[in-house]
Write a structure and sequence with these properties.
By secondary structure, this protein is of the alpha/beta class. It folds into three domains: 242 residues, Glutamine Phosphoribosylpyrophosphate, subunit 1, domain 1; 186 residues, Rossmann fold, CATH 3.40.50.10490; 145 residues, 3-Layer(aba) Sandwich (Rossmann fold), CATH 3.40.50.10490. An eight-stranded antiparallel β-sheet has the order 3-2-4-1-10-9-11-15, with helices on one face. A hairpin with a 4-residue loop joins strand 13 and strand 14. The mean pLDDT is 93. The protein binds fructose -6-phosphate. The site of fructose -6-phosphate has 15 residues, from helix 9 and helix 17.
């Protein structure tokens, strides 16, 4: 994620930049920095750790000037440290850059620059941009940034300043969000509106592929190919609390709607041009993957439910026996683990005590340990042999949504990477899966567009005290997560089980009007799940099905259908979970609960 800021106006830039960064800290807070121009020189201050460290540093050594840029970091390339904190400059300090997102071809660019004699001071992809802008600079910052951006691939936003052009700031949006706040004789740049909402209520939202040029004469937007863009100002009337949540009533809803962008980040740079998977942070030794005879997946709660999806897809795609185990169970079992076992530990926080214990048990017994986690620098990421970061950005709501969805995307990438090494794929199947994976963010977006329909269905759940979720195979894994979301924030008792299991006991609880949610996306077991719908319908259940938009059958069986866009069956969890997250959200909201902090729960469970 990362948060970026810029200021140009008559006031002192430093306090405005620091205040904006404080409001952007939710996007990352492992280090922070600013660069300020005083009309003659361009100075940089940066520090590892929370913003307060930088503030302390600036108290002792202030940076004076009326325009500047700032950054609060969520590490992707290189660990949190002073040297990896932004802004980055070229070695002569002529160009300063802050950046959010990933420069996918940074290794190739860095090698090219090193071959020409460039020296680098950090491990980041951002520093490459500072070098490129300096290399392209011939007196016009806008043109230098344009040429640099043409050489840099990826999903990102960046802001640049030059020592040579006091009073000018240039920014670019390539997918990652960016807005210009337009005040009275002053201008702001920020990753989101709330960061500067107390300075102005007028905003120009920068679109993908656009550049913005700020100078004392004003601001203008143009496309990368130089076409001027007229942009109407957006007048924002959110109150302070709404602003912190980006205008959403709760962080949970905000995070649900961030999922297309989060999935884009998870995929970014990990599928190469030839369609193979290249995972940063994963370096399996020769022979390990080829000789793998078992995979353990260990996690808790929502992360465990992501593990259930992992089990299904690893077994289906790789034909390697895979066990998904609750970490609190696995740590006290005597799991069968050998040197040809791989263990995948999944954790948003990377700090869940049970998951760390199970992961380390597996490692002690000789398993290769792979972490799938959201938090760079977390204990799990440090304990593991290999790490795949989900890059969902900070998740504030206790009920996990975007972290779960990006765990799923991470597992598909892992399955592909493992399968490529094991020669498990037919070329056309592989190409089809990769193509579908690339399109997932758009499909997630389409699923979110049906929010209003989900909200209507949610009304039917409000007065109930028991709800059941069913499905088969991958649909069962999603039903488990949908059920957990429902119970943890709505406080309605909810149970999930494989559709075939109902008749072995739980059916006794289904009476007139009992809500039963059926996930129905797997064509190979479709008819079998429809039989389970008949069983509950015969007892008077109110059935809500989650099904593909092109399913012409389902409406004959279910009372309500929550439609999802068509994706290959194997990828369905990534979209079928979306209406279930929204359903839980709307039910809890209608019941008036504290959605972001449900009773008795905590975001990170660091006790056993
Ligand atoms: C539920 C939820 C929890 C966590 C669980 C593990 O919405 O968020 O069930 O998934 O506590 O947490 P992490 O993923 O941090 O290990």
């Amino acid at each position: 994620m990362c948060g970026i800021m810029g200021y140009l106006g008559p006031k002192a830039a430093t306090p405005i930049l620091l205040d904006g960064l404080r409001r952007l800290e939710y996007r990352g807070y492992d280090s922070a920095g600013i660069a300020v121009h005083d009309g003659t020189s361009l100075s940089v201050a940066k520090a590892e750790g929370k913003l307060d460290r930088l503030v302390g540093q600036l108290d002792v050594q202030p940076l004076v000037g009326s325009y500047g840029i700032g950054h609060t970091r969520w590490a992707t390339h290189g660990p949190p440290s002073d040297r990896n904190a932004h802004p980055h400059t070229n070695p002569d300090g002529e160009v300063a850059v802050v950046h959010n997102g990933i420069i996918e071809n940074f290794t190739a660019l860095k090698e090219e620059l090193i071959a020409k004699g460039a020296a680098f001071a950090s491990d980041t992809d951002t520093e490459v941009i500072a070098h490129l802008v300096a290399e392209e600079y011939d007196g016009d910052l806008l043109e230098a940034v344009r040429r640099a951006v043409r050489r840099a691939e990826g999903a990102y936003a960046l802001v640049a300043m030059s020592k040579e052009e006091p009073g000018r700031i240039v920014a670019v949006r390539m997918i990652s969000p960016l807005v210009v706040g337009v005040g009275d004789g002053e201008m702001f740049l920020a990753s989101d509106i709330p960061a500067v909402l107390h300075h102005t209520r007028s905003f120009a939202v920068i679109d993908n592929g656009e550049m913005v040029d700020l100078s004392p004469d004003g601001w203008h937007i143009e496309t990368l190919d130089g076409t001027a863009v007229e942009r109407d100002l957006l007048e924002v009337d959110w109150d302070a609390e709404q602003a912190e949540r980006g205008g959403y009533p709760h962080f949970m809803l905000k995070e649900i709607f961030e999922q297309p962008a989060a999935a884009t980040e998870t995929l970014s740079g990990r599928i190469t041009e030839d369609g193979t998977v290249d995972l940063d942070g994963v370096d399996w030794p020769e022979g390990l993957v080829e000789n793998l005879d078992r995979i353990w997946i260990t996690a808790c709660g929502t992360a465990f439910h992501a593990g259930l999806v992992g089990k299904e897809i690893f077994e289906r795609l790789l034909r390697v026996p895979t066990e998904a185990a609750y970490a609190h169970e696995m740590r006290y079992r005597d799991p069968i683990i050998t040197g040809t076992t791989m263990t995948l530990a999944i954790s948003q926080s990377g700090e869940t005590a049970d998951t760390l214990a199970a992961a380390n048990l597996a490692k002690e017994r000789g398993s290769r340990l792979l972490a799938l986690t959201n938090v760079v620098g977390s204990t799990l990421s440090r304990d593991a042999d290999d790490v795949l970061f989900t890059r969902a950005g900070p998740e504030i709501s206790v009920a996990s949504t975007k972290a779960y969805l990006t765990m799923l995307v991470g597992e598909y990438l892992l399955a592909l990477a493992l399968g490529e090494r094991r020669g498990a794929f037919d070329a056309s199947d592989h190409a089809e899966l990769v193509e579908a994976l690339r399109h997932l963010p758009v499909k997630i977006e389409e699923a979110l567009e049906r929010d209003a329909e989900v909200a209507e269905v949610a009304d039917r759940f409000i007065g109930h005290e028991d709800v059941y979720f069913i499905g088969r195979g991958l649909d069962n894994a999603v039903a488990m997560e949908g059920s957990l979301k429902m119970k943890e924030i709505s406080y309605i008792h909810s149970e999930a089980m494989p559709a075939g299991e109902l008749k072995h006991g739980t059916l006794a609880l289904v009476t007139e009007g009992t809500p039963v949610v059926v996930v129905l996306t797997q064509s190979d077991v479709y008819d079998k799940t429809v039989s389970a719908i008949q069983e509950v319908k015969a007892r008077g259940a109110f059935v809500v099905a989650v099904a593909f938009e092109d399913d012409g059958e389902v409406a004959k069986h279910a009372d309500e259908v929550l439609r999802i866009p068509r994706v290959p069956d194997i990828l369905s969890p990534v979209v079928s979970i979306v209406p279930l997250q929204l359903l839980a959200y709307h039910v809890a909201s209608a019941r008036g609960h504290d959605i972001d902090q449900p009773r008795n729960l905590a975001k990170s469970v660091t006790v056993e």
